[in-house]
Specification:
- The protein is of the alpha/beta class and 128 residues long.
- It has a single domain, classed as YaeB-like fold, CATH 3.30.2310.
- It has helices at 33-40, 51-59, 66-81, 111-114, and strands spanning 48-49, 86-91, 94-99, 104-110, 124-127.
Length: 128
């Protein structure tokens, strides 16, 4: 068995597991940043944005008002009452694919992006 390398002149603690050290990789500490961020970015009614949706909203220059967020929340609640799991929500000039079960916006796009997309893996559509 090869010796376990150590960093900074401090020998490894034999009582602490050395996961991933032999290959020079540092094991992840805690949860991914995107997961933590999406939990922190919530609307007042508990609607969350995935890291992917936040990236799309930012790169596409989409500004969402509190009224629009409320309308999205109402559309998600409506889809939930009908038993939907994954829904396409059309709101003015925006489209959102939402996990109704998790109350999470998975992706977002503006009207220009909608023209060239096929929406898959949805079981409902709500016009908000």
């Amino acid at each position: 068995m090869a010796a376990i390398p150590h960093i900074g002149g401090i020998p490894p603690n034999p009582n602490r597991p050395q996961i991933g050290v032999r290959r020079g990789r540092i094991p992840p500490i805690g949860r991914p940043f995107g997961e933590i961020l999406s939990e922190q970015v919530r609307t007042p009614d508990g609607l969350r944005f995935s890291a992917h949706a936040l990236e799309r909203i930012e790169t596409r220059g989409m500004d969402l008002s509190s009224e629009e967020l409320e309308r999205i929340g109402n559309a998600v609640a409506s889809a939930d009452r009908k038993g939907s799991r994954e829904s396409l929500i059309l709101l003015d000039h925006h489209a959102f694919v939402v996990s109704v079960t998790n109350r999470t916006i998975i992706t977002a796009m503006g009207s220009e992006d909608m023209r060239s997309h096929v929406f898959t893996n949805i079981d409902s559509a709500v016009i908000g």
